[in-house]
User: Which sequence fits this backbone?
């Protein structure tokens, strides 16, 4: 059964194969514009801390100390109002 062989029958066998060109440059990603766009909006900070009972090492039982913070920003839109909600998560070790 040769149902879909029209392309092979109609193709010009003497036609030259197209040459492949190699792209030698790379496009630079543009820097994020998000911080510029969020500038001037009201900002609310939500801190996520461990309670003193949770600040105990599961291996040795010593108290954990605050090592650094991780920050995540999200845009929260209210009807006719937008503000930036900044989450700060404290990392312990």
Assistant:
């Amino acid at each position: 059964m040769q149902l879909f062989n029209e392309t092979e029958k109609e193709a010009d066998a003497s036609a030259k194969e197209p040459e492949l060109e190699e792209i030698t440059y790379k496009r630079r990603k543009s820097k994020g514009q998000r911080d510029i766009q969020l500038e001037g909006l009201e900002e609310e900070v939500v801190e996520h801390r461990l309670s003193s009972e949770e600040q105990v090492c599961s291996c040795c039982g010593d108290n954990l100390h605050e090592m650094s913070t991780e920050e995540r920003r999200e845009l929260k839109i209210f009807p006719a109002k937008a503000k930036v909600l900044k989450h700060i998560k404290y990392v312990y070790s």
Observations:
- The longest strand covers residues 66-78.
- The first helix runs from residue 6 to 10.
